[in-house]
Amino acid sequence: MVTNKQMLTTEALVIRDMNIGEADKLLTLLSKEYGVIRAFASGVKNMKNKKFSGCSPLSYSSFTLVKAGDTYKIREAACLNSFFSAGRDVVAFALSQYFCELAAFLAPSEIPAGEFLRLMLNSLHFLVNKKMSVTLLKAVTELRMTSLAGYTPDLVACAGCACYQDEHMVFDVQTGELFCRDCARGSSYEKAVSPTVLTTLRHIVYAPFEKLYRFSIPERDACALAGITGAYTQLHAEHRFTTLDFFESVL
Length: 251
Prior knowledge:
Layout: E1 5-20, E2 24-31, E3 35-41, E4 59-68, E5 71-82, H1 90-106, H2 114-128, H3 134-148, E6 154-158, E7 169-172, E8 177-180, E9 190-193, H4 195-206, H5 219-237, H6 242-250
Parallel strand pairs: 3-5, 6-8
Antiparallel strand pairs: 1-2, 1-4, 2-3, 4-5, 7-8, 7-9
Helix pairs in contact: 1-2, 1-3, 1-6, 2-3, 3-5, 4-5
């Protein structure tokens, strides 16, 4: 039953923090049950605070929250896993911050977001353990997250003639449609896709989650793929991700 004050327990990833005064922080959390929520954490800038590790950036923690109206306050926080080691490498750190900005912007608030959290946790795991090239991991994460947010491209076949595969095909990052050479309209938003890139785009969007990361492609193709997924994500989110600028500057 809902009361003026609710005690909530959830596991969540800290995707953003903002200093409040000398000792407190406002955290942005991504949780399975409640999506993106913002909660005040008192005293956590002090390393001796028992909530310090659980409230640190890129920590996946168990939280006990007190909700009063639209305000959340963190009563307890215990770190379950930390991806803070991404900060040891500037490229990995930059990419982790981009993932966090993507989630903060695209994941829903106050409603379940289990698939978003699952994607974030797995991508951060692959990032800190260097299990996939950063270029390919960027493309996988941004396109899958953009699709989860409701901007799923139509990659089944050519939007004009239903051709499934052609030697020369283009993907329109504005409409999210695929076209063969004969049906392409010459739009400035159309990006040429090789058979390898097209197969990979389809895999990222349509593969079961258990198989999402189980592939590799040459780095040249990964770079072409990342350019397309980046353009598609920013265009449909209608947002310029500053952390992406940072990532591209250090790559």
